[in-house]
């Protein structure tokens, strides 16, 4: 699984990083960074949950 982050859309709410800190973090400019190019299978559910809570739909999950 991969997670694509649209960093132009991200508004830095940080909800994704609250839900899945193993997958998402915010950089110094409060823009999301995806920590795994390929999300390990053990983190897939968290990655999906983090992507779902984004209020501006900046995160897209693909397999
Ligand atoms: S929840 Fe969405 S807007 Fe907020 S930091 Fe994550 S990607 Fe950015």
TrEMBL record:
<keyword id="KW-0003">3Fe-4S</keyword>
<keyword id="KW-0411">Iron-sulfur</keyword>
<comment type="function">
    <text>Ferredoxins are iron-sulfur proteins that transfer electrons in a wide variety of metabolic reactions.</text>
</comment>
<dbReference type="InterPro" id="IPR001080">
    <property type="entry name" value="3Fe4S_ferredoxin"/>
</dbReference>
<dbReference type="Pfam" id="PF13459">
    <property type="entry name" value="Fer4_15"/>
</dbReference>
<keyword id="KW-0479">Metal-binding</keyword>
<keyword id="KW-0249">Electron transport</keyword>
<dbReference type="InterPro" id="IPR017896">
    <property type="entry name" value="4Fe4S_Fe-S-bd"/>
</dbReference>
<keyword id="KW-0813">Transport</keyword>
<dbReference type="GO" id="GO:0051538">
    <property type="term" value="F:3 iron, 4 sulfur cluster binding"/>
</dbReference>
<dbReference type="GO" id="GO:0009055">
    <property type="term" value="F:electron transfer activity"/>
</dbReference>
<dbReference type="InterPro" id="IPR051269">
    <property type="entry name" value="Fe-S_cluster_ET"/>
</dbReference>
<feature type="domain" description="4Fe-4S ferredoxin-type">
    <location>
        <begin position="1"/>
        <end position="29"/>
    </location>
</feature>
<dbReference type="GO" id="GO:0005506">
    <property type="term" value="F:iron ion binding"/>
</dbReference>
<protein>
    <recommendedName>
        <fullName>Ferredoxin</fullName>
    </recommendedName>
</protein>
<keyword id="KW-0408">Iron</keyword>
